[in-house]
Known about the structure:
Elements: H1 2-13, E1 18-25, E2 34-41, E3 44-49, E4 56-59, E5 64-67, E6 69-74, H2 83-87, H3 91-107, E7 110-115, H4 121-128, E8 136-139, E9 143-144, H5 178-190, E10 195-199, H6 218-230, E11 234-239, H7 242-251, E12 255-258, H8 264-273, E13 276-278, H9 282-292, H10 299-308, H11 311-322, H12 342-349, H13 354-360, H14 363-368, E14 386-389, E15 403-408, E16 411-414
Parallel strand pairs: 1-4, 1-5, 6-7, 7-8, 9-10, 10-11, 11-12, 12-13
Antiparallel strand pairs: 1-2, 2-3, 5-14, 14-15, 15-16
Helix pairs in contact: 5-6, 7-8, 12-13
Amino acid sequence: MLRVLELRLDQRLLVTRTLFAGGLVFDGTGSPVAGADVVVDDGRIVEVGPGLDGDERVDVSGKHVLPGLFDCHIHVVGSHLDTMKYLETPLSYLFIEAARNLETTLRMGITTVRDAGGADLGLKKAVEDGLINGPRMQISLTMLSQTGGHGDDWMVCGGTLPIFPSYPGMPDPIVDGPEEMRKKVRELIRDGADVIKVATTGGFLSDRDDPGHAHFAMDELEMMVREAAAAGRWVMAHAHGAQGVKNAVRAGVRSIDHGTYLDDEAVSLMLEHGTWLVPTLVSGEGTDEALENDVAMSDAVKTKIREIGHPELESFRMAAEAGVKIAMGTDCPVAPHGRNLGELRLMAENGLTPSQALVAGTSSAAELMGLQDELGTIETGKRADLVIVDGDPFDFEKLGDRIQAVYKDGARVVG
């Protein structure tokens, strides 16, 4: 009996090397695609190069092998822009939908996301524990907003429209004044936030604010960043208008998300402070489609969308040309879940090369999220998140349709 137990233990200790053989590797650094084998052991990449061997062989001959992709601005809780449909949907139903959205995102080769509001600690833990299949997550819980700001659901009738109401573990987002801000940030961290999200301007999908207007005073923003930093957290800023961008950068936020109306000073400040841009360009296509399909949104929201045009494209080109650090984010479901990779196409059409766009979705995104030592590139020692693509990975138009398999920590999760 003892001998049997020893044999079983020896078997568990045996190294099982999985060889991904014959692929064309885009390693995420921006280096040219090159033929190479990739060897994975215990969820980690242990070798990359020609002529390698392994205990198990996965033939990827002629296929492209990419690092797992990132979406640094997504809302996995939420599947559309239809206000009335949300009002007719039980809160718990949204979490069941979220499981589907996470699966859809994973099918796009996106193995890591930064959720920009809606996902809570329970949803993140369900993925970590294997109850549902999805990308690993950093979560923000909710978006901090001043009274009358982008996260304030007050309506002119005097009531509120709480599409995503507060509940235990999901704090109310409204905060005014530095001391309230201090407490609210601490509450978010207590409830599981990995990153703090704030609206430093108005938004397009809210009724009573102007996307061009700056929100929060500097003492409020500085308090928020200071309290987040004390707990080892960064801040991501929803910011459209240039002044709100500048205030956020001066306060020390990690990333500007959207950046719709950048100007020269805003870009210079981002370069000076090393602030990231998460452009969410594909969301503009999503709002255009919502108007065309007459989705149930308020007249105020429809008017804002109709009048904006697409200044975000010029702002993105300005930032890209200047050398601002860029990481991929989509704002899905503003564009439907499953359309995430349209962001790569739009970045490549508006200032980045296709290779630079893929870097923005891999190693740069990993750096933004503080995961560069673990993810974002195909290198020895990194976690084995791999995406197997049939055909040209730089042909972004139908890239999602050509993803044949996705591996997360060495385990096949798609395909």
